[in-house]
Amino acid sequence: MAQGDSFAASVADWCHAVDGATEAIFKESVQELVAEADRLLTQMVYEAPASPNYRRTGFLRSSVRVSRTSIPLADRPQGVPDADYLAEITVVIAGAELGETLYVGYTANYAGFVHFGTSRMAGRPWVQMVAQRWPAIVAAKEAELKGRLGL
Fold first, then answer.
1. What is the spatial distance between Cα 90 and Cα 122, in angstroms, rounded to a whole number?
2. Cα(94)–Cα(108) distance, rounded to whole angstroms?
3. Helices 3-17 and 134-149: angle between axes, nearest 10 degrees
4. Contact (CB, 8 A) for 93 and 30
5. Long-range contacts, stretch 93-101, CB < 8 angstroms, 24+ apart
6. Which tens digit of pLDDT belongs to each residue from 12-39?
7. Which tens digits make up the pLDDT trace of 62-110?
Protein backbone atom coordinates (compact mmCIF):
# COMPACT_ATOMS: atom_id res chain seq x y z
CA MET A 1 0.00 0.00 0.00
CA ALA A 2 1.41 3.42 -0.95
CA GLN A 3 1.96 6.04 1.75
CA GLY A 4 -1.00 8.12 0.49
CA ASP A 5 -3.21 5.02 0.55
CA SER A 6 -2.28 4.14 4.15
CA PHE A 7 -2.90 7.74 5.24
CA ALA A 8 -6.31 7.76 3.58
CA ALA A 9 -7.14 4.37 5.09
CA SER A 10 -6.23 5.45 8.63
CA VAL A 11 -8.33 8.63 8.35
CA ALA A 12 -11.23 6.63 6.87
CA ASP A 13 -11.10 4.00 9.64
CA TRP A 14 -11.21 6.61 12.39
CA CYS A 15 -13.93 8.67 10.67
CA HIS A 16 -16.27 5.70 10.37
CA ALA A 17 -16.06 5.21 14.13
CA VAL A 18 -17.24 8.76 14.94
CA ASP A 19 -20.55 9.97 13.50
CA GLY A 20 -20.10 13.19 11.51
CA ALA A 21 -16.30 13.15 11.73
CA THR A 22 -15.73 12.61 8.02
CA GLU A 23 -17.86 15.58 7.04
CA ALA A 24 -16.31 17.82 9.69
CA ILE A 25 -12.77 16.92 8.64
CA PHE A 26 -13.64 17.43 4.96
CA LYS A 27 -15.18 20.88 5.44
CA GLU A 28 -12.65 22.13 7.96
CA SER A 29 -9.77 20.90 5.76
CA VAL A 30 -11.08 22.77 2.71
CA GLN A 31 -11.56 25.89 4.83
CA GLU A 32 -7.98 25.57 6.11
CA LEU A 33 -6.63 25.01 2.58
CA VAL A 34 -8.21 28.29 1.46
CA ALA A 35 -6.91 30.09 4.56
CA GLU A 36 -3.38 28.78 4.02
CA ALA A 37 -3.49 29.82 0.36
CA ASP A 38 -4.60 33.28 1.46
CA ARG A 39 -1.75 33.55 3.99
CA LEU A 40 0.86 32.29 1.53
CA LEU A 41 -0.33 34.63 -1.25
CA THR A 42 -0.14 37.52 1.21
CA GLN A 43 3.43 36.58 2.18
CA MET A 44 4.66 35.93 -1.35
CA VAL A 45 3.01 38.86 -3.11
CA TYR A 46 1.65 41.51 -0.81
CA GLU A 47 4.40 41.45 1.83
CA ALA A 48 7.27 40.87 -0.63
CA PRO A 49 9.41 43.78 -1.81
CA ALA A 50 7.53 45.92 -4.30
CA SER A 51 7.90 45.19 -8.00
CA PRO A 52 7.60 48.03 -10.51
CA ASN A 53 5.49 45.76 -12.73
CA TYR A 54 2.84 44.86 -10.16
CA ARG A 55 0.28 47.08 -8.45
CA ARG A 56 -0.88 45.72 -5.10
CA THR A 57 -4.62 46.25 -4.87
CA GLY A 58 -5.72 43.06 -3.11
CA PHE A 59 -7.87 42.06 -6.08
CA LEU A 60 -5.98 38.83 -6.77
CA ARG A 61 -6.33 37.76 -3.17
CA SER A 62 -10.06 38.50 -3.10
CA SER A 63 -10.64 36.77 -6.44
CA VAL A 64 -10.43 33.29 -4.85
CA ARG A 65 -13.64 31.30 -5.27
CA VAL A 66 -14.88 27.85 -4.31
CA SER A 67 -17.35 26.07 -6.55
CA ARG A 68 -19.29 22.84 -6.25
CA THR A 69 -19.65 22.49 -10.04
CA SER A 70 -16.41 23.42 -11.83
CA ILE A 71 -13.06 25.12 -11.44
CA PRO A 72 -13.55 28.89 -11.22
CA LEU A 73 -12.22 30.51 -14.39
CA ALA A 74 -9.48 33.13 -14.29
CA ASP A 75 -11.42 35.54 -16.49
CA ARG A 76 -12.12 38.60 -14.31
CA PRO A 77 -10.26 41.79 -15.25
CA GLN A 78 -8.73 43.95 -12.53
CA GLY A 79 -11.40 45.41 -10.33
CA VAL A 80 -12.22 46.43 -6.80
CA PRO A 81 -11.25 43.90 -4.11
CA ASP A 82 -14.18 42.16 -2.46
CA ALA A 83 -13.89 42.61 1.30
CA ASP A 84 -16.24 39.67 2.04
CA TYR A 85 -14.58 37.10 -0.24
CA LEU A 86 -13.94 34.58 2.56
CA ALA A 87 -17.55 34.74 3.80
CA GLU A 88 -18.85 33.56 0.42
CA ILE A 89 -16.36 30.68 0.45
CA THR A 90 -17.49 29.63 3.93
CA VAL A 91 -21.10 29.44 2.72
CA VAL A 92 -20.18 27.24 -0.27
CA ILE A 93 -18.11 24.89 1.90
CA ALA A 94 -20.85 24.67 4.54
CA GLY A 95 -23.37 23.70 1.85
CA ALA A 96 -21.18 20.99 0.34
CA GLU A 97 -22.13 17.38 0.81
CA LEU A 98 -19.74 14.63 1.72
CA GLY A 99 -18.30 13.03 -1.40
CA GLU A 100 -18.71 16.17 -3.46
CA THR A 101 -15.72 17.69 -5.20
CA LEU A 102 -15.00 21.30 -4.30
CA TYR A 103 -13.02 23.37 -6.78
CA VAL A 104 -10.86 26.24 -5.55
CA GLY A 105 -9.51 28.81 -7.99
CA TYR A 106 -8.54 32.42 -8.47
CA THR A 107 -10.67 34.36 -10.93
CA ALA A 108 -8.38 37.36 -11.54
CA ASN A 109 -7.38 37.09 -15.19
CA TYR A 110 -3.70 37.63 -14.27
CA ALA A 111 -3.56 34.95 -11.54
CA GLY A 112 -1.62 32.57 -13.81
CA PHE A 113 1.01 35.21 -14.56
CA VAL A 114 1.59 35.81 -10.86
CA HIS A 115 1.62 32.07 -10.06
CA PHE A 116 3.82 30.88 -12.92
CA GLY A 117 5.74 34.09 -13.63
CA THR A 118 6.54 35.92 -16.84
CA SER A 119 9.68 36.99 -18.66
CA ARG A 120 9.73 40.06 -16.38
CA MET A 121 8.63 38.53 -13.09
CA ALA A 122 9.47 35.35 -11.19
CA GLY A 123 6.55 33.08 -10.40
CA ARG A 124 5.04 32.84 -6.96
CA PRO A 125 3.50 29.34 -6.96
CA TRP A 126 1.36 29.69 -3.82
CA VAL A 127 -1.43 27.47 -5.17
CA GLN A 128 0.89 24.58 -5.94
CA MET A 129 2.66 24.93 -2.59
CA VAL A 130 -0.60 24.81 -0.63
CA ALA A 131 -2.06 21.97 -2.72
CA GLN A 132 0.98 19.86 -1.83
CA ARG A 133 0.08 20.32 1.84
CA TRP A 134 -3.40 18.76 1.46
CA PRO A 135 -2.53 15.46 3.25
CA ALA A 136 -0.91 17.40 6.13
CA ILE A 137 -3.91 19.73 6.38
CA VAL A 138 -6.31 16.77 6.60
CA ALA A 139 -4.11 15.04 9.19
CA ALA A 140 -3.96 18.21 11.29
CA LYS A 141 -7.74 18.65 11.14
CA GLU A 142 -8.21 14.99 12.12
CA ALA A 143 -5.92 15.45 15.13
CA GLU A 144 -7.64 18.72 16.05
CA LEU A 145 -11.09 17.08 15.92
CA LYS A 146 -9.90 14.13 18.00
CA GLY A 147 -8.58 16.58 20.58
CA ARG A 148 -11.84 18.54 20.67
CA LEU A 149 -13.77 15.31 21.17
CA GLY A 150 -11.35 14.06 23.81
CA LEU A 151 -10.43 10.93 21.84
1. 31
2. 24
3. 30
4. yes
5. 93/27, 93/30, 93/31, 93/34, 93/66, 94/27, 95/68, 96/26, 96/27, 96/30, 96/68, 98/22, 98/23, 98/26, 100/68, 101/68
6. 565 556 667 888 899 999 999 999 999 9
7. 999 999 999 999 888 888 787 888 898 999 999 999 889 999 999 999 9
DSSP the chain: --HHHHHHHHHHHHHHHSTTHHHHHHHHHHHHHHHHHHHHHIIIIISSPP-TT----SHHHHTEEEESSSPPPS-BPS----TTHHHHHHHHHHH--TT---EEEE-BTTHHHHHHB-SSSB---HHHHHHTTHHHHHHHHHHHHHHHHT-
CB-based contact 104:73 (threshold 8 Å): no
User: Do 75 and 87 touch, CB atoms closer than 8 A?
Assistant: no
